[in-house]
Automatic annotation (TrEMBL):
Organism annotation: Methanobrevibacter ruminantium (strain ATCC 35063 / DSM 1093 / JCM 13430 / OCM 146 / M1)
GO biological-process terms attached to the record: negative regulation of cell division
Superkingdom field: Archaea
Name of the protein this chain belongs to: Cobyrinic acid a,c-diamide synthase CbiA2
Pfam families: CbiA (PF01656)
Length: 266
């Protein structure tokens, strides 16, 4: 396996829990790097039993102000080129400041490992009036574009809720997108929208049903677009919920059979 996989969905649908579970399963035969690009998610590392590095990706590469400066440079250059008719279309804000690298090159300053599972935080909102998450998203896009995976290496990206990361092109290097859909109309509408955007971006797309039961499964399936591939389902699990609430590591054994089947399909 050698893939970059983005996990998407509405807030509270179970993205982080799902990532924790499949990371544990995939790590049996692969090196798995998890990138937490949700600026408001504070507990993913605890589900994985992985420490957080002293420095986030954004801090390592100079912090918010430096990354925003790079974004502005690119935007201004793009507008100038448009003015003199050397570039078509809207000015881009996509930075390109990193060199190509492998997982083995990544410094311990911003990545931590527990066995075959690695963990990186793109950056967090730490102060009032700090500003938007644009620098984290832009840097994560550049980082993912420059990571060269080897055989038996996987990157799982825990995205912010919604679709802003797709609109900003962070999925440019993605091999596939997976949406987590819980029994809610918001989750279904979002999954259909992401499916449409994935098709437009020529990205493989699939859905996992989460917290599902016999009373809600058919209702969810009939509202998902016909061309969406549903590759697995997970019922609500009180033991996993209690582990999450207690800020403890998620136990794969609770749903190992279902997760194994899902991993075989993705």
């Amino acid at each position: 396996m050698k893939e970059k996989i983005f996990i998407n969905g509405r807030g509270g649908c179970g993205k982080s829990t799902f990532i924790s579970l499949i990371a544990k399963e995939l790590s049996k035969n692969n090196k798995v790097l998890i990138i937490d690009m949700d600026e408001g998610n504070l507990g993913l590392n605890k589900m994985l039993n992985v420490d957080v590095a002293d420095t986030s990706l954004m801090e390592y590469y100079g912090g918010r102000d430096k990354i925003m400066g790079e974004i502005l440079k690119v935007g201004i250059k793009g507008m100038v080129l448009e003015k003199i008719n050397l570039k078509d279309g809207a000015a881009s804000d996509s930075i390109d400041i990193l060199d190509n690298m492998k997982l083995s090159d990544l410094p311990s300053d911003y990545v931590t490992w527990n066995g075959n599972i690695g963990f990186i935080e793109s950056g967090k909102i730490n102060d009032p009036d700090e500003g938007c998450a644009c620098p984290m998203g832009n840097l994560t896009r550049d980082f993912l574009n420059h990571i060269e995976l080897q055989d038996n290496e996987v990157i799982l990206v825990d995205t912010s809720a919604g679709i802003e990361h797709i609109g900003r092109g962070v999925i440019e290097s993605a091999d596939k997108l997976i949406s987590i859909v819980d029994p809610s109309s918001d989750a279904i509408l979002l999954a259909n929208k992401i499916g449409s955007l994935s098709k437009e971006a020529s990205k493989e797309y699939m859905v996992i049903l989460n917290k599902i039961d016999e009373n809600t499964k058919d209702l969810v399936l009939e509202q998902l677009d016909d061309d969406i591939s549903v590759v697995g389902e997970l019922e609500y699990n009180s033991h996993i919920a209690q582990s999450n609430l207690s800020q403890k590591e998620i136990n794969l054994e609770e749903v190992e059979g279902e997760i194994k089947e899902i991993c075989a399909k993705i």
